[in-house]
Every structure is written in structure tokens, then in C-alpha cells.
Design brief:
Among the domains are: 87 residues; 174 residues, no CATH class. The protein contains 19 helices and 13 strands. The strands form four sheets. Strands 1, 2, 3, 4 and 6 form a five-stranded antiparallel beta sheet that branches. Helix 2 packs antiparallel against helix 3. The longest helix has 61 residues.
């Protein structure tokens, strides 16, 4: 492993641990006291972290850029200052020298670039983590975008994945998430999905597949690709003028309706899921363009995921249950998708889901109601800790895509009601489904019919829930108080062992970097001892 790889690994691991510790300490310090003043302190903390992250990501590139793109789209949960700090990571990553990019281009074409393309721009019009896009003109006068892979990006990603392995090891060792997520499988999914971006020919095939699927959808466009000029590291496609979908000034200047855009965009993403097949796994603002006439242009199909028809049906069941407030059906769908393992407390889970949906509909979450937020967070933490809940690794990129996409929608229209938009389309989809040569199954039809009258059927249950609320509140308080002392002791031990381990690990990296053998031996000893202490103190 060369020094560059060691340096990248050290920077990524150290920053990850630092941020995690800051957030954990903040949450412990202000637990149960979330006020506007505390919220301001939280914004200052995450903004400071965002600035540090951006500086590091722009210097290192690679996976750091990918993660920054994800975080910068979470407008639904991240403060505006955080979004503003990371916004430049989506498609304005510092460019490599033009000379190096042209050298790679001519190596792939095995000839001078001027033999195929004229008027190639002096600078890239977009620069991302994997490749850079230049504007040029073919010999026949067609304007094209030429995407050139960053030289050496494969070596950078290999080092970053090593760093990710260390971060995953720390998460598995010092947090409870290892019980809910198969991190080994998740890591494999990351390598396969992100690694596929290095093959531009696969991106070409993906883009054409999407264009064929949505050819009849009005107001949506996809680029035309040119096989004769495309290789594994060079991709040539049609040049399409447009602004980022999150460019609100452009949208307002052209008199476009934000709500209409958000609804059409949501339907475009929903259609990718309903019938199964591929979905765009990286739908951030830089990959969705808007033309002055309101046409939506979807680009960059390097990262795509897939969902089977069976999984799509289960997702539909979950969405139906949420829309029509049939939470047992939501639990059924989650079990089919393997988010829940056997012996889960269905009543507890259904109750938590119902209150999250109620808080969403009443906008209590966005209004920062202290009691509502604190209780929901406490319930979610208790569920994750005590219930057999897991995240199937194959859904990790689907969840990331959904989160990224929802963030874009919130930028367009902060008051967008996703449930209201989804309801008519889900019913329409369900009515049109076929089961082989047979019509939509009787069981499905019955489920849809019952859900359609869900509000009426839910009235008796709402009454019982209202009457039962004091009992559930008392149970909740008893469980919380009983576990508080044990939890405090466990966290203190975990925090102490974690800090010692992290400092020892960081010192080890420093020793390796400077080839200081005594320092490596000493820090390695303390790291091993702290890990054993943590293991002996952890609850079984």
C-alpha cells in the first residue's frame, strides 16, 4: 500500500470518528431539551462539520464526493446552511488539468481528439467524482457532451474502499448497527454499484434502457448516445441545454410551476419502481436537468439499481398500508422485504409507524414539537435496539436513491405531500396489474377495496387507540426509566473504550506514515487492549 493510500485512509477514518463522536456527545448533552436555542447550536455544529467535510472531499475526491452528494440532497432533514456548504460537490468538483484529460481521451481513441471532435471546450462544463464533461462538436456539426474518466480514479477508489472497511469495522465494534445491517454484504453492494460507474459502456446501455422504458412519458427526455465514439473510459452523448432541477431562480424566471415539477418528477421516479426493473440510484440535482419549457432531462446512468417485480409488489403493499393507514399491512410488506426478522413485536412496530405518519401529516415533525420529536426518536432507538429489525444490503442503494430524491423534491417544494401524490397513482397501478395471463388477483382486489374504505374502517381502532393511549404512555415511561441507568453505564463504557481505540488507531496510522516502529508497537498495544476491554464490558 503506497503512502497516498495510507494518507487517504487516515483522513477518512479520523474524520468519520470525529464527526460521530461530536454528534453523539451533542445528543447526550441536550437529550429531551430540544428548543430553538438548541436547534441553533445544532445547526452551527453541522455547518462546521459540513465545511470541514467539503474541504476534505474537494482535496481527496473519490468516495468523499459521493457521500457529499448524498448529504447535500437531504433538504428534508439537514439545515439549509449544511445544504449550502455541500451543494458545490454535486457537479463542480475541481477539475484535473485539461492536458491529462485529453491524454486519456486520445489514448482511448488511439488518435488525436481533433479527428473526431472540434471546438472542445477549454474547461470541463461539469466535473464530478468519476468523470468530467467537456462540450464539443462532431464533424457533422452535432453538439455533444464528452465525458472523460478521471485519470487514476480506479486507484483512488480502491484506497477509499479500504478506508470504508475500517469505518465499517468501527461501526460494527462500537455501535449497535451491526445487529441491524449486514455490513459485509453492504460493502459488496457498494463495490459492485459504485465500481460499475468506472465502465462508461455500461452507463451507455443503462441510459438507452431508460429511454426505451419511458419513451411515451410526456415532458421527459434522455440523451442520445454515440457508440462509435464511446469506450470504457470515454462516453459521447447528445448535448442538451438545461439548468439543474434545484435551480429555483431558473425555474421562477421561466414561469415554471414548482409543485407541478415536483409531482411530475415524483411520478417519474415512482414509475421506475412500480413495474420492477432498474431505477436511477443517484438522482441528485446535478443529474436532473430542467429545460426552459419545463421538460425534465435525466442524465448520468452510471449508478443504477434494480428491483424485482415481487419486491415491487411488496413495496406497493407498504405504500398502500401507509396511505390507507392499514399498518398491519405495512408490517406484512416489510416482512416480505426482509426488513423484519421473525418474532418482531408487530403491535409495537405498527404503533410507531402510525405515530410517525400522524406526525408527518400534522407537520409536527417540521415544527420541532419537542415532546413529539423526543418521544418518536426514543421509540425508534428502542425499536432498533430491541426488535429484530435489519436493513437488507441490496436495499441500501434503493434507500439512498429514495432519500436523495426526496431531498430534491423538498428543495423544489418544501410543502410537497408525497402521500397525496402517490395515492391516485398507486390505485391506478394496482388496478392495471396482471398476474401472468390472469387479471389482478382476487386477494389483491379485495385488499385494494378494503383499503379504499380504510378511513371508515379505522374509526373503531382510532377510538380504541385513543382510550389505550394512557396505558401505552405509562408502559413507555416505565420501560424508558428502567433501562436508563443500564443504558447510561453501557454508553459510558462504550464511549471510553471507543475514544481510546480511535486515538490508538489514529496514532498507529501516523506511525505507519512516518515509519516509526516504536510508536506503531505502542499504539497497537493500546488499541488491542481497549478493544478487549470494550468486548468484556459490552452487554451480551
Amino acid at each position: 500500500m503506497d503512502r497516498l493510500a495510507i494518507y487517504r485512509i487516515y483522513r477518512i477514518v479520523w474524520m468519520s470518528v470525529k464527526f460521530f463522536s461530536q454528534v453523539t456527545l451533542f445528543q447526550r448533552r441536550y437529550k429531551g431539551r430540544w428548543t430553538p436555542v438548541i436547534n441553533d447550536k445544532w445547526e452551527r455544529l453541522v455547518t462546521k462539520q459540513a465545511k470541514e467535510y467539503k474541504r476534505t472531499a474537494l482535496k481527496l475526491g473519490g468516495l468523499m464526493i459521493k457521500m457529499g452528494q448524498f448529504l447535500s440532497t437531504r433538504a428534508d432533514i439537514m439545515p439549509p446552511s449544511f445544504i449550502a456548504e455541500l451543494d458545490g460537490l454535486t457537479d463542480r468538483v475541481p477539475a484535473v488539468p485539461r492536458k491529462e484529460a485529453i491524454a486519456l481521451l486520445e489514448e482511448e481513441w488511439n488518435t488525436s481528439h481533433s479527428d473526431y471532435v472540434e471546438n472542445l471546450s477549454d474547461k470541463p462544463v461539469a466535473s464530478a467524482s468519476i468523470g468530467e464533461v467537456y462540450k464539443g462538436t462532431l464533424k457533422d456539426g452535432t453538439a455533444v457532451a464528452v465525458k472523460i474518466q478521471r485519470p487514476g480514479i480506479d486507484r483512488i477508489l480502491r484506497a477509499d474502499f479500504r478506508a470504508m472497511k475500517i469505518v465499517i469495522w468501527l461501526v460494527k465494534r462500537f455501535t449497535a448497527f451491526g445487529k441491524q445491517i449486514d455490513f459485509n454484504l453492504l460493502y459488496s453492494e457498494m463495490v459492485d454499484t459504485i465500481g460499475a460507474e468506472l465502465n462508461f459502456l455500461q452507463e451507455l446501455r443503462n441510459g438507452r434502457s431508460f429511454a426505451d422504458r419511458f419513451e411515451e412519458m410526456p415532458g421527459v427526455r434522455f440523451p442520445v448516445y454515440y457508440d462509435e465514439f464511446s469506450t470504457r473510459r470515454v462516453l459521447v452523448m447528445e448535448w442538451i441545454e438545461g439548468a439543474r432541477i434545484t435551480d429555483l431562480a431558473f425555474i421562477d424566471a421561466n414561469g415554471l410551476n414548482r409543485r407541478d415539477l415536483s409531482e411530475r418528477l415524483f411520478r417519474l421516479f415512482l414509475e421506475q419502481v412500480l413495474d420492477g426493473g432498474q431505477f436511477h440510484a443517484d438522482p441528485h440535482g446535478g443529474n436532473i436537468l430542467i429545460k426552459p419549457d419545463g421538460t425534465i432531462v435525466l442524465i448520468d446512468f452510471g449508478m443504477v439499481g434494480s428491483i424485482s417485480k415481487e419486491e415491487a409488489r411488496s413495496v406497493l403493499k407498504v405504500v398502500e398500508g401507509i396511505i390507507f393507514k392499514q399498518y398491519d399491512q405495512v408490517i406484512d410488506g416489510l416482512e416480505e422485504l426482509r426488513f423484519l426478522l421473525p418474532h418482531a413485536d408487530r403491535r409495537l412496530l405498527a404503533d410507531a409507524i402510525s405515530r410517525v405518519v400522524a406526525a408527518y401529516e400534522s407537520q409536527e415533525l417540521t415544527q420541532m414539537d419537542s415532546f413529539v420529536v423526543d418521544r418518536l426518536l426514543a421509540d425508534i432507538k428502542r425499536i432498533v435496539r430491541t426488535q429484530p429489525v435489519q436493513l437488507p444490503a441490496e436495499f441500501a442503494f434503493f434507500g439512498r436513491a429514495v432519500s436523495t430524491f426526496v431531498g430534491v423534491l423538498h428543495v423544489l417544494d418544501p410543502k410537497v405531500d408525497l402521500l397525496a401524490i402517490a395515492r391516485p397513482r398507486v390505485l391506478e397501478w394496482a388496478a392495471m396489474q396482471k398476474d401472468g395471463e390472469k387479471s389482478f388477483s382476487k386477494d389483491d382486489a379485495l385488499r385494494i377495496a378494503l383499503n379504499a374504505i380504510g378511513p371508515l374502517r379505522a374509526i373503531p381502532q382510532k377510538i380504541l387507540t385513543y382510550l389505550d393511549e394512557p396505558t401505552r404512555m405509562r408502559e413507555y415511561m416505565q420501560i424508558r426509566d428502567a433501562g436508563m441507568e443500564v443504558e447510561r453505564s453501557r454508553l459510558q463504557t462504550r464511549m471510553f473504550a471507543g475514544i481510546v481505540s480511535v486515538l490508538s488507531l489514529a496514532t498507529t496510522f501516523f506511525g505507519v506514515w512516518n515509519e516509526h516502529i516504536p510508536l506503531i508497537a505502542t499504539s497497537g498495544f493500546f488499541f488491542i487492549v481497549s478493544a478487549f476491554v470494550f468486548k468484556g464490558k459490552s452487554p451480551k
